[in-house]
Amino acid sequence: MYPADMKYTKDHEWVRSADGHAVIGITDYAQAQLGDVVFVELPAVGRTVTQGEVFGTIESVKAVSELYAPVSGEVVKVNDALSTSPESVNKDPHGAWIIQVKPSNAGELGSLLDAAAYQALLG
Predict the structure, then answer these.
(1) Count of domains observed in the chain
(2) What is the DSSP letter of 43?
(3) Sheet strands side by side (includes 7-8)
(4) In terms of pTM, does the model score above 0.90?
């Protein structure tokens, strides 16, 4: 259920490496807990984020939840399509990315969970 080519956080974000960038989104578990997503607050391109720091929020019909940066670096791209179609996070949680970061510390990826460890975390 959780793609093996991604790393995961205990806060239910995923990271996939692509073209030297860390592509970041939320897991299927997270979107299921949230329910119908109605809004995603995106950070500004150029903003520097620190691993574990809040970079935005995601709002559903049930709650507003903070999004945490799985890695440190500079935000190089945001998924503007989420402004008009936030529900794509529910439809394809492991395909609907939120931001892309140029990592400043590649070693941080090693501190994240692999798919088996994330699945074990969920029980």
Answers:
(1) 1
(2) P
(3) 7-8, 13-18, 21-26, 99-103, 73-78, 48-49
(4) yes
Asked if residue 1 belongs to a domain, the reply is no
Please report the DSSP string for 63-95 in residue order.
-EEEEE-SS-EEEEEE-GGGGT-TTHHHH-TTT
- Tell me, yes or no, whether 2 lies in a domain: no
How far is 34 from 57, CA to CA, in rounded Å?
Answer: 12
Averaged over successive runs of 10 residues, the pLDDT of the chain (123 residues) comes to 95 96 97 97 98 98 96 98 97 97 94 97 95
What is the structure's pLDDT at 1? Answer: 80
- What's 46's DSSP letter? T
**What's residue 106's pLDDT?**
85
Domain of residue 105, CATH code: 2.40.50.100
User: The domain containing residue 67 runs over which residues?
Assistant: 7-122
